[in-house]
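Protocol step 4 of 6: structure prediction from sequence.
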Amino acid sequence: MNTMDTSSSSERNVPKSQVRSMQKWIITSTEPPKILRNCPKCGGVQKFVCSGNFRVNANGRNIDVWLIYKCEECDSTWNMTVLSRVKPEQIEKSLYTAFAKNDAETARKYAFDKSLLAKNHAITDCSELRYALEKQMIDDGSNTVELVCEYDIGLRLDKVISEGLGISRAHAKTLLEQNNLSPKTRVFGTITVKELIFNEIRNQIHENYSSEEQTTSDSDVTALSTERISGR
């Protein structure tokens, strides 16, 4: 796991008694899940990667749209159906433009669409999925950690807590169980973890403060800081 710490020095030097904030952890996948399917050229099951490109075909008064995937090994393509035999007037102009211009965010949205993937009998593989974790500290006195992940990328809660705090999986599991949360919980949507996890963060900040032997006035405490962690 590669870590880049951009937290302000004032946050790291805050006395334990002054740390009463809410941390918001935003987890973002940096790539869509791969698709496992048989490749006719390779002669077996391979991983297909989302190309980010759409194929749009007009057949009379009907329009078909596919999202194109490519085999990692041979570049053979598989088209995942996005829209089938849809009348032009049923497609919003902005969406049609996004298809035509291969809009990256639109491709990402459909690549994560579980309902669409299921309709296409697509088997997803998130085992190598890379993601970024951004921490925001907001001075609201709630002493909670709020984890936000827009898409289900197969991340377990204990893994995120372990990597986010820089502690062992066993330690993260213990903290979660003390919070009456299952370590196996998939991180998706919004999950709020209270006192015990935040206390771990507070203790770490306090240890940094003590080791550096510095003092900070209340005016030096910042209300917002970010730290980005990349992993998979």
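Step 5 (inspection) to follow. DSSP finds seven helices and eleven strands in the chain.
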